[in-house]
User: What shape does this take?
Amino acid sequence: MNTQHDSIALFGTSADPPTCGHEALLKGLLNIFPKVVTWASDNPLKNHSIPLQKRYELLKLLVEDIQNPHLEINQKLSSPWTIKTLEKANELWPSSNMIFIIGSDLMEQLPSWLRVKDVLNKARIGVAKREGWPIQENQLQTIKGLGGVIDLLPLDIPDSSSSTFRKRFKLAQIPKVILPLLMNQNLYDIKNK
Assistant: This one.
């Protein structure tokens, strides 16, 4: 794994809303990489429950609560398309090694991304194993066949997805720092659940 001093872990997320899984991943990445950058974005394969600006505000609260100088939120990287994000990241940090972070749940989807070969040319792919989503050898081989370099990260992320929260409203899956904003603004119609 490439964790040189000039490596940047890039983690974009829908953050719809950020969960304890997002929090665990960000903290875990900080133990591996010298710099971690995150942002909220629209995923072209998902319907989002609240506007991007609100999801950014929630993620920003989480980043501020983690209180680590090596973690930053940079909303300028936000794009529905990974290639656009990586082009912006290369403009901001032209001499850095980019590691684009995904959960193992996105392994199957990655080969269908817009300009996937360009994506894989601009960044290594760091894969965090997500509970309930085992890493499949055939998925690894498909990505490698497209020119991808994959780092399997020594992380196990709990199964606390945003979509599961929206269906079942288990407040224990949401970081405590985010709950007041969810309640005060009645995001996700939380007061009626």
Q: What stands out?
A: DSSP finds seven helices and six strands in the chain.
